[in-house]
């Protein structure tokens, strides 16, 4: 992961630590141009990823509102994908000092210094508990020194988030232990689902025990034995391991490590107050003064003055933090109220928009239905009109066919009648022509020479014979021709004078 850019902003420079739930990296904030520390949380369930991120962001934001003197400052949080793995990350201020575990390993502090350091951790816990935040994982590795020598408590919100995530994901049926076994309270070891601020006070007692004796109060060879010790083991008072510890301080540590939360001190503030009383000024021993004891007395007085100043500063800081917490709480309430009002307004607007959308969609659906209905009606009317016109056309066609048949019959009848009349006319003309011819022959016999009469007779006979085979269409013209010729013949014959009656009367030879 070294050199990768987290969420497009944080360049991972060096891994500072690694645990079962994630890693801690030194990083560079490209946007703000500052060194930061990034905690990566990788051990996450696959179900409910969005809800998991929302819980993570909620816990980190709550922790980021804590006063910053004894708590590490959280700058940012989010989710990203690194090496193909989904991670949640928290960006916090980069501390370059040692952890409390490293400091005790290098040199065990005096009980006075251990008490002073414990009071700083108690002040951080008090500020968190006042806002309903329980750390759940107080241990030497989660306490670091800043550049001014003050202690800073790390990982507020992380343990709470991890515990909720494990329970929500359903990994166990009775709860699991979240925290470090060596500094875990008995109720955490039992996997109780709900723990309160007193579990942090137990872990604070373990932390003070570690500073006073160099080891945690209960240590076993394996995790199962460690859990058994946390639930049933007996804790040896610290003054037996370090006789320099005042008995009052040893008894107070035992009170902090009470197995029943009800038997522990009521709050982190009461722990800080009692530690301030325990760490009162220690006078010089009753012996002759010497330069060495004078120097020791001066150092003791200086330490006392410094402790008094630190206590006064802590009290002022506590008062300031309380005032700031009240102002912050009021501001948060106002913001919550404004956000709620904005959400209600947005909800009303969404409801109005949804109602308008539904109304518009209903109108569009009704318009579409009306259009379909009208179209169906028009189609039905068109089909009816078309059927009616088709029926009318078929009826008219039948009438036309019937009329055509009638006309055909009438035409056939007319043709037959015309042929009959034509034949009758030809017959009549023929008879008339024969009559005229006969009359003409009779007259011709009297007037014309025999050879002319014979020619005329032959002509008329040919006309009559030809008319018998002439089609009906040509009979009319033939008749007209015959009539015209007969008329001409009649006119020609009329030009001859009527011969005297009786042939005997004609002149002789």
Helix percent reads: 55-70%
Annotated CATH architecture of the largest domain: Orthogonal Bundle
SSE string, helices as H and strands as E: EEEEHEEHHEEHHHHHHHHHH
Overall CATH class of the largest domain:
Mainly Alpha
- Report the sheet-strand fraction: 5-15%
| Arithmetic mean of pLDDT | 78
| CATH homologous superfamily classification of the largest domain | Transferase(Phosphotransferase) domain 1
Q: Strands across the major sheet, in which order?
A: 1-2-3-4-6-5
Characterization of the model:
- This protein has helices at residues 49-64, 100-106, 111-130, 158-169, 186-189, 198-213, 223-232, 238-241, 247-256, 268-278, 291-447, 450-468, 472-494, and strands at 5-6, 10-18, 22-29, 34-41, 74-82, 85-93, 143-145, 151-153.
- With 509 residues, the chain is of the alpha+beta class.
- The chain has three domains: 1-94, Phosphorylase Kinase, domain 1, CATH 3.30.200; 96-280, Transferase(Phosphotransferase), domain 1; 415-494.
- Helix 6 packs antiparallel against helix 9 and helix 11 (291-447) runs parallel beside helix 13 (472-494).
- It starts with a strand and ends in a 15-residue tail after the last helix.
- Residues 10-276 form the Protein kinase domain.
- GO terms for molecular function: ATP binding; protein serine/threonine kinase activity.
